[in-house]
Design brief:
The chain is α/β, with parallel strands linked by helices. 43% of the residues lie in helices and 15% in strands. It has 2 domains: 2-42 and 284-385, Aspartate Aminotransferase, domain 1, CATH 3.90.1150; 44-280, 3-Layer(aba) Sandwich (Aspartate Aminotransferase, domain 2), CATH 3.40.640.10. The protein is built from 13 helices and 13 strands.
Length: 386
Amino acid sequence: MIENINKNLKAIKPNPILGFNDELSKEEGLIPLTLGEPDFNTPEHVKNAAIDAINDNYSHYTNPRGILKLREAAAHFFAKKYGLNYDSNTQIITTAGVTEGIFDSLATILNPGDSVIVPTPAFPLYMDNIQLHGAHLIEVDTSKDGFILTPEKLKQALAENENVKAIVINSPGNPTGISYDETTLKELAKVIKDSSIFCISDEIYSELTYGKPHVSIAKFIPEQTIVLNGLSKSHAMTGWRIGFIMAPADLIDMINVVHQYAVTSVTDNVQFAALEALKNGFDDGIKMRDIYAKRLNLLRSGLSKSGFISSKPTGAFYIFAKIPEQFTQDDFEFSRQLAHQAKVGVIPGSSFGEGGAGYIRISYATSENNLKEAIKRIQNFVKQEG
């Protein structure tokens, strides 16, 4: 019977990041710098809000879009933080994380045969979701442009491909940690506006930016943008699965249909935890960001001394580093060698599509002590094997 399953699903491989992390987990004594998950605990006031909600018997279905107070708090948060103005009644849906937001958005806008542009390297979930919905993936390699999609490259991709329905922008980005500045976003927005395509803007790392405030492309083309955000990274709430979709009201109405069939509504008491996070944890993410910034400088300095070249991240908690020339440029082989011999776990760059080959992604969402030990191991490995 297995041969009769969805033909699009047959072409999709399991998540390479989770698969490789699972492979490395068997390595005894490994320092894992693999997964993109904050090493902080969820703030106490947020946990207590969930406990109170459970004790108050908030264990029922809610409005599929989320409880109104939560949507109001989200509207206020994103307006104050980033100048985004969305109506809490008609333009916001509460989702089970941004992962669900990606699925719902693509399921809503795509028809079989449509195409979606993804600047790569990029989070593989985008690419697999596009193909799952019967659409054609167009990867645009940004490795020679500082991991930023240029307006010229976007124009070229639009000119060379048919039936383009959307583009995915992730800023700050995973795996590179690079953010789009306001000037570039304005230029991209003009191209997107002229081509009448959707822009799916994944902004989950928006609270974790270094040196410059986060800018959303939705400020320039709100009528064409689907904004995805959530609390996984900003409030160390990955396991709570809480996110938001923000878009024009008529589009939200249609996305909400997919959302209802996918999850009905997000867990009741978790929504009250999220409400507390947005109302009384307005700057919880900033405290974590400042610690990440110190770790970034520590790790990047140590890697540079070992011959790893990397663009300086402007957000998130990853370094995307070029494998030194004296080593194999097969990033899977190199990452396995690093794990087996140096006992340091990283993610191969080609997991993230075109433009990632010959790179490794290193997460610094771990303790300073772990990073110092990992740097020492990597430096010794380079000396011995290089």
